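Dear colleague,

Thank you for sharing your sequence with our group. We've completed the structure prediction you requested, and as agreed, I am returning the results in plain text so they can be pasted directly into your records. Please verify that the sequence below matches your submission; if there's any discrepancy, let me know and we will rerun it promptly.
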Amino acid sequence: MSEGDTEIRADELEKRLRGTRVPVVGANGAVGSGTVEALSAAGCLVAASDIHGGPKGSPDEGAYFEADLTADGASEGLIGWAAERLGGIDVVVNGAGIGHVDPLESLPIETWRDVFAVNVEAALLLSQHAVQEMSAQPSTTSSVWQRR
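Please find the predicted structure tokens below.
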């Protein structure tokens, strides 16, 4: 593939993404902040969320929602806020996650539960609420919804 082919594909991708409504969770992490920046540059309407502080690269401060997704109702609240702010949701980027390294024989069960709560349970709840919100919309571009 020549360099020109890559540029054409990037232009086409940008055209397809322009106006896409995207909440990005985990927006203050290295991957999340880069995702917010790239999607914003491509013309997406982005609503950023993270558990830690204010936005690092959110397109504007009003498009930021601080949330601990392990808290009861947080995923539903985040999705509701993003849908209201953006006029709906087309795609959700879940970049939230935590890690912990300990030898298996000394890994505290509470640490395991915390990692599972963020990386698995919160992702499930976020996805469930996002699909419910998207199914109430007239149309959507979500790959999750298209497979239904």
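Summary note from our side: DSSP finds five helices and four strands in the chain.

Kind regards,
the structure core
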